[in-house]
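REQUEST FORM: STRUCTURE PREDICTION
Request ID: SP-0412
Submitted by: Lab K.M.
Chain count: 1
Length (residues): 413
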Amino acid sequence: MKNDAYITKKCPVQFWDFVMIEDDLWYAASGFNGLFRADLKSKISKFVGYFPGESNNAADLYGGVCRWRDKLIFAPFVANRIAAYDIVKNQFETYTIPAFERNTKYPFPYFMGIVAVQDSIFFFGNIHPVIMQLNMITGEVKLHLKWYKDFEQCGKDPATFLFDRHVLRRDAYLYATSRQNNVMLKLNTKNCRVEFVEIGDRSARYSALAFGEDQFWVIDQIHNELLCFSVNSQKTQKIVSLPGEAGNYDIAFCNGCLWIFSKRFSNTISAYDMVYNPERNHLEILNLKQMHDGYGVVFAKEEGEYVYCMYPDSNEIYKMHLVNDELIIHKLELEYSNALYDTVYESGMIDGVFHEASSAKLCNTHTCIQRNMNTFLKYVLYEEKAKYPQYLGKQIGENIWGLTTGGIRSHGE
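STATUS: Completed
RESULT:
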C-alpha cells in the first residue's frame, strides 16, 4: 500500500507558529510531537527530532515559538515542560513549569504568546491568568499572577480566552489584548509591573493586535470594526467597519499595510481576508477562498517584507506581499522525506492519521488512503484497546468494513 511518489511529496504537517532563520523555517508540528526545519529554497522540510519528555503522538504540544541567540524556545500549550532547541549544538533542553492553579476543565499550561526580551522569555496564558518568565542565563522560571485582580476589575468574560499569539514588544514593554475585556495589557519587562490601557467602548473585545509606525491596530470582534490606538495621544479611533460576519482574526502589519485574515473555520460563514492601506484609507478584499475552500487561517505572521499564512486544509504556506497595489502570492508546498512517513504514518497511533483516514471532509484528501499495511492492521485491530475503550465491542470484520467503506467513525471524531 506504499506509494513512493506520494510519501515523498504528500505528508501534510500543520503548525501554529514558526521562526525564520535565513532561508530556513523552523516549527513544531501541531498534530504530533516533532520539530521540523524547512528549507524554503528547496521546499524540503526535514524532521529534526522529538521533543523530550512528551508523548510522540501528542497533538498541540506548543502554541508559539521565538528565538533567543542560537536557541529556539517553545511555549507549552499541552506540553508538560518548556522546550528549547540549540540549533548550533543540535540538542534539546527543557525547563520545569512551576505549579499554578488551573481550571479542572483545562489541565494543561496553554501558553501561546511568547516574546524574547534581553535574557528573558515571556509566556502569556491563553486560558489561565498567568504570565511566565524564563531567565535564559540561570534557567529560573517565575510566575506573574498578581496583575489578574486588577485585570478583572476592567471586565471579565469567562467564556472567552485570555491572550492569543499576538504579544508585541515595543522598547522595554510588552503589549497584549484580550477577548475578556476592552483593555490592552502593558508589561514593563524591567520590573514586571503591569498596567492597563482602555481601548474603545467597554463592550469591545479584541481578537488580534498589530503595531504600525506609531499606533496599535486592533479588531473589535463584537462590532466587527477595525480600530487604531495612538501611542502618543492615547486615543482610539474607529477606522472602518469590516464586511461579513464578526469573528476572530489574525492580523499583521507589513510594509505599511495591515493584513487581515479570518480565522473562521467554516465555508458557510460570510468572512473575508483583507488588506488595509492607512495612507490611502483603502480596504481591499483579498480573493483567497479559491485557494483554501473558504476556511480560515491557522496563522498569519509578518517576516521581513512578507506576510506568511497557512490554512488548515492545505499542505502549503502562502508568502504574500503587495507590489504597486498588486497582490503577489508565492505558494510554498513543503515536501517531506520517506523517513517522516515511517516516523508518523507507520505508527498508526496518531490521532490525526485515523481522523484523516475516515473523514475526507476534514482533511487534506491526499492523506485519505495512502497508508501502509502496518498502519492498516493497527487501525482495524486497535492494539491499544485500553486506550480506546469505545472500540472494545467492535468486531475486526466490522472495522475492516468501515475502513474500506468510510462507515466507521475514527476515535478522533
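NOTES: Confidence is low (pLDDT under 50) at residues 1-10, 346-375, 382-388, 405-413.
Reviewed by: T.R.
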